[in-house]
Amino acid sequence: MLSFFGYPTMDHLNLAADQLMATVRVSSCDETAPHLSFINGVWVDGSLILRSSFQEVASRIYGAVAKPVDFQHRAPEVVKEVNEWVQKETNGLIKDLIPDGSVDSLTKLIIANALYFKGAWADKFDSSQTKEGTFHLLDRNTVKVPFMSTKKDQFISQFRGFKVLKLYYNQKPGQRRFYMLIFLPDEKNGLNELVQRMSSDPGFIGQHTPRARRVEVRNFIIPKFKIGHGFEASKILIDMGMRAPFDMEQADFTEMILSSLGDKLYISSVHHKASIEVDEEGTIAAAATAVGFRLMCYRPPVDFVADHPFMFAIVEEDSEAVLFMGHVVNPLVE
Fold this sequence. Notes:
This protein is α+β, with helices and mostly antiparallel strands and 334 residues long. The chain folds into 2 domains: 2-119 and 227-277 and 286-291, Antithrombin, subunit I, domain 2 (Antithrombin, Chain I, domain 2), CATH 3.30.497.10; 122-223 and 295-328, Alpha-1-antitrypsin, domain 1 (Roll), CATH 2.30.39.10. It has helices spanning 2-5, 10-24, 52-60, 71-89, 191-199, 204-207, 234-239; strands at 35-45, 66-69, 109-120, 131-136, 142-149, 155-159, 162-168, 178-185, 217-223, 225-232, 269-278, 282-292, 302-305, 310-316, 322-328. The chain has 7 helices and 15 strands. 20% of the residues lie in helices and 34% in strands. A 6-stranded mixed β-sheet has the order 2-1-3-12-11-10. It has a 5-stranded antiparallel β-sheet with strand order 6-7-8-14-15. Strands 4-5-9-13 form a 4-stranded mixed β-sheet, with no helix packed on it.
């Protein structure tokens, strides 16, 4: 797992996680500022004893406190408890994270996290300017969707084959800043190629974030959208190289469990759900995962017409930590 995340030791991984957690946690009494909540929970069967070192790291860095439960006799009740916890921490956006039947008497441990973000645009869109227009799907069909529009100058950079728009969320001076990036392919069917380029380059987002001043826009429209998606992520993680934790023969969690069972546990499932809504006011987004075991010069006006599939990301400015990432192929499909 260390090699998968790119760290030589657990100490290096924990230090990086500690710095990231400190960066993205936002504490503000200002209701107009972005609200970010990232919490973690651990549910452990009473037959297991967690190592004190693991409990200390989980509590200090991740804010997670282990709760003893009885999977052998009360597995459905534990699932209900975890799902209710996730739903509460995401303000109701993520429901039924763990499907019925995916946890049973053989389950020994569930580690879950939930991420919630709500932010208002620094420059809100005028709802009276929202008009219905045509959005082009990847299968060459079209749908009618509401498009937001503005004449205000925007942070837009142009690259080979795509443009990137940066929209800031409202924040007072001196507070952490967040923004959304929209990666718009030049070609209406160019999303897959753009996703492949991003996937093959870990620094892609940072290298293609608009840095210069605002530019004048000519035609500027982006769709309102609300999307949600859930999936079982084990195969994806295995295909990406994280094989050992899912293999009954190779998995080793002895650094976590204080018993002979530590080398008998393996990850059986990884359930992930995400939800995001974008409109004239701003963005509401949530995600949850459960693991069972340039130089200034004149620039001509640019067009940014997001009338075909695109990618997006929500980023914290100082750390460039990506909080959410996804793509929109049909703004009407939730």
